[in-house]
Amino acid sequence: MGKHEASTDTQVLQRIRSHEEGWVFTPADFVDLGSRDAVATALKRHKAAGTIRLLGRGLYDVPHQHELFGTLWPPIEQVAEAVARKDGLRLQPIGVYAANLLGLSEQVPAQAVYLTDGATRTVKVGPTQIVFKRTTPRQMAAAGRLSGLLIQGLRSMGVKHVMPKHIELLRSRIPAQERAKVLEDLALAPAWMHAHLKEIAKP
Which structural domain range is residue 9 located in? Predict the structure, then answer.
């Protein structure tokens, strides 16, 4: 191993160890530490040592060990964030997954769906499929903000199924200063949702 390669190897390991178990990453998270080949060699070596795990093509994690359940699969959001960092994407959870993130649904979907401004594709990690669906700029207007998650979560439930108990649940789970920001994106929500969002945003 050359001096530069050894330096890259050490720096890559230090960065990996600076994160907690469950961190998901790609080679792009180490581009500042060395050449593409040197980073690839370092990741291959740390994978062989069992320090990291290959989840899929170009996608790794620091395996989380549970005392009862053994090695766990990483959280969906960690995988999505790693893909977003690598490709410079914006993401917006939708459907049952969005409702689950908000606590509106206890159903854990086998398929998590994100709207994106990037290409449509599917990433499989363990038992879960993560689908990235390209959409319009308007659909992505509130991406990455609480309002975007709320709009998609309520939409997944449907106009006839959003009850006062759901609104109260959201109000109890989300800090007042965060709820207040929702009104800034009111125009991006369907008309039937406006009253619900206003109620959520109340102090």
Answer: 3-70
One domain for residues 97 and 193: yes
| Bridging pattern class, strands 53-56 and 91-94 | unpaired
- Is there a domain that residue 78 lies in? no
Please give the Cα distance from 203 to 201 (Å, whole number). 6
Is 113 found in the same domain as 146? yes
Count of domains forming the chain: 2
40-95, pLDDT tens digit by residue?
A: 999 999 999 999 999 998 999 999 988 888 999 999 999 999 999 999 999 999 99
Q: Let me know if residue 46 belongs to a domain.
A: yes
C-alpha to C-alpha distance for 58 and 83, rounded to whole angstroms: 10
Per-residue model confidence as pLDDT tens digits over 118-170: 999 999 999 889 999 999 999 999 999 999 999 999 999 999 999 999 999 99
d(CA 197, CA 186): 7
pTM: 0.88
